């Protein structure tokens, strides 16, 4: 916890930011972004509103931009499906399971 890491912004959504560190991906949820940050639906990007004395700046986070962030928590668990679980699974469910298995291990971060 609180370890500072760096990586490149891979994806930005209203839910948060996915950061690629080369060997693993981290997720910065919207609730843990820097105070003053907001998501712009039109640009599909996060911005940080920075105020300095009498001026206001809007700094855009760019996809592929390298950022530093600190770890809030980690979750290395992934859903495991056993053969007993698959007896009643439909094709739709199997596709959902496959999608989950492809999801990155989650490092929840903050303070980028």
UniProtKB/TrEMBL annotation:
Top-rank taxon, per record: Eukaryota
A Gene Ontology biological process in which this protein takes part is:
transcription initiation at RNA polymerase III promoter
Name the protein family. Answer: Belongs to the eukaryotic RPB7/RPC8 RNA polymerase subunit family.
Output the InterPro entries linked to this UniProt entry: NA-bd_OB-fold (IPR012340), RNA_pol_III_Rbc25 (IPR013238), Rpb7-like (IPR045113), S1_domain (IPR003029)
Q: This chain belongs to which protein, by name? A: S1 motif domain-containing protein
| Xref: SUPFAM superfamilies | Nucleic acid-binding proteins
One GO cellular component assignment for this chain's record is:
RNA polymerase III complex
Instruction: Report the Pfam families cross-referenced here.
Output: RNA_pol_Rbc25
Q: Where is the S1 motif domain?
A: 2-86
Q: Which GO terms describe its molecular function?
A: nucleic acid binding
């Amino acid at each position: 916890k609180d370890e500072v890491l760096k990586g490149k912004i891979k994806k930005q959504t209203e839910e948060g930011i996915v950061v690629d560190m080369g060997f693993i991906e981290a997720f910065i949820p919207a609730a843990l972004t820097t105070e003053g940050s907001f998501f712009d639906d039109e640009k599909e990007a996060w911005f940080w509103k920075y105020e300095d004395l009498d001026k206001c700046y809007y700094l855009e986070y760019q996809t592929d931009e390298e950022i530093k962030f600190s770890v809030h928590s980690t979750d290395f668990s992934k859903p495991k499906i056993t053969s007993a679980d698959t007896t009643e699974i439909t094709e739709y469910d199997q596709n959902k399971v496959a999608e989950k298995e492809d999801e990155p291990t989650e490092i929840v971060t903050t303070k980028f």
